[in-house]
Please model this.
Amino acid sequence: MAKIRPFRGIRPPKSLVTEVASRPYDVLNSEEARIEAEGNPKSLYHIIKPEIDFDSSVDEHDAVVYDKARENFRKFQEEGWLVKDHKPCYYIYAQTMEGRTQYGYVIAANVDDYMSGRIKKHELTRKDKEEDRMKHVRINHANIEPVFFAFPDNAVLEDILTEQTAHQPEYDFTSPDGIRHTLWVIDDDRLIQTVTDTFAGIKDLYIADGHHRTAAAALVGAELAQANAQHTGNEEYNYFLAVAFPASHLKIFDYNRVVRDLNGLTDEEFLDALSKDFIVECKGTDEYRPNALHEFSLYLSGNWYSLTAKEGRYDDSDPIGVLDVTISSDLILRDILGITDLRRDKRIDFVGGIRGLGELKRRVDSGEMRVALALYPVTMKQLMDIADTGNIMPPKTTWFEPKLRSGLVIHDLND
Model:
């Protein structure tokens, strides 16, 4: 059962939230962060991407960079740009994009729940990326940025969201990318207990986005537990920062592919090879988006095509085999184009659906890429089924949008 608890959030005063809050560390590079933080000493980038305070020749993984993160985190608190709440609270965080709003609970999730598999994952992680974020958590002794969880819909928690978000929010602003961010503080003891008890009745939490941050936060918590001879299990380091959303609130966008060449084939030979496993229909020059599972959209030489996988080419009873990313990886990328390693092959690149089909067309028309493949998005049910069965999704399968804004609430491991 999900063990969570409230915590004393460290967060900006209402008047400073737009100056402090930032995009997550991993959605932009160092130079982009320098540009966004220019002229703003209060930007969270000075903590989560502290290399921006050095010359660009300094490696972002140098020890002095991590030291700078700690120095800046301390400075933000000394200056009053970040202030700790007087009591443990929960928070409700809402994001609105293109008229759709998702509401989540900002919680302290339990390290043991991750280590035992009650917080379920669907992606593999890389040790180098884990270690980078572990260093950041260790040196700040805090979870500066939240991870992104989902949980099965629950009527009690939905009612609380409805009731609490009818009140005046603590924060309400629109970030430069057009996303509206709203935050409410739950500081009523009775309500806090209800949230804690209700989550305790939820069997599992699911990592939607942020597998490396989740692993890093949990592994540092486990390290601190092992190093403490008086460890009780109740220390704050046994918990880490997460925003948990009801599954029905979330939307997974398509994660599409562009490929540099046709593996020596002509257009006609490529389309003929596809017809073995797919019903291929030319849709003309207007953008064409897949309408259902097992239908794909292909852009090649100025034309869009629909590809519908033929019966018997996939297994609906297999949580991995049923995925369109598996079907396309096996029957198109591997069997026809000779791409077997999606993580390392330089002939392929990936485009999040938030960029639209126009980005696929642009990259092919420019000559950079030869062909583009658009997929129907994975559903939350598919994601949870895969996690429940202990399976791992193929690389570059899910794209969640909007991303969580960093700096709204920080979790201190020292409490």
Remarks:
- The longest strand covers residues 100-110.
